[in-house]
Each structure stands twice: as C-alpha cells, then as structure tokens.
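B., you asked whether I could sanity-check this one before it goes into the benchmark set. Here's the sequence:
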Amino acid sequence: MTVLALAGSVLNIDGSFLVVFISIFLLIFILNRTLFKPINQVLDERERLGAGRMSEAKQLLVAYEERLGRYEQQLQSARAEAYQLMEAHRREAQAARAETIAQVKSETATQIAAVREEIAKQTQSAKQNLEGEARAMAATISSQILHRPVSAGGN
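And here's what the prediction gave me:
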C-alpha cells in the first residue's frame, strides 16, 4: 500500500502545479518578447534582404540582357547600313569606271581613225613621190641606155 500511496501523492494536482504553470506561461511570454521576437525579426529582415537582393539581381540581369539585345540590334543595323553604303560606293565606282572606259575607247577609236587617215594620206603622198621619182629615174636610165634624151612624162 505504501507504493500506491506514494504514487497517488506524486500525481496529485496541488497549488505548486498552478505556480509551475504560471511560471512556464510567464517564461514563454518573456522569452517571446525578449529573445524569439527579435531573432525572428532579424531572420525575417535577412530573408527579405536576401530575397530583395535576389530580386534586384534578377532585375539587373533582365535590364542587362535588354540593353545587350538593343546594342546587338544597333550593331547589326549599323553593319547592314555600312554594307549598303559600301555596295552603293562600289556600284558608283563601277559605273564611273565603265564610263571612263567607254570614253577612253571612244577617244582611242577617234585617234585610231585620225591616225589611219593620216597614214592613208602619207601613203598616197609617198606613192605619188615614189611614182615621180621612179619616172625620173626611168627617164635617166633610158637616156643613158639610148644615148638620147627621153622625157620623164612617159610619152
């Protein structure tokens, strides 16, 4: 019986239970106010800053990619414009070259025609001179062979 009597006294709820209960409740209240609440605030602030920084980093990355895309687009546009400008200059140069070649060909053809005409005149003049000299030589040779004067006119 003594064991049951001792067991009953341990399980009896008396005034000390109420003191322990109030002490625990008061300790929880004090710890929440002084320890857990500031720690939770620090942890929340840390989480907020971490998430804020991640969000800010993501925004900066999006802005960077957007700027990079615009830069690449402007660069591509500038290259295309430069290629078009180079192509226009090349076409102009080819047209000027073709015009110069046509002009030189025309001038050359004119000069060749003038030179041919001059050569034809010189040839005709040379033929007339040679013909006159040949008649004179023939007359001289004939007069020496025949031992009498022969006219250079060929009569």
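One thing to flag: The longest helix spans residues 15-146. Otherwise nothing jumped out at me.
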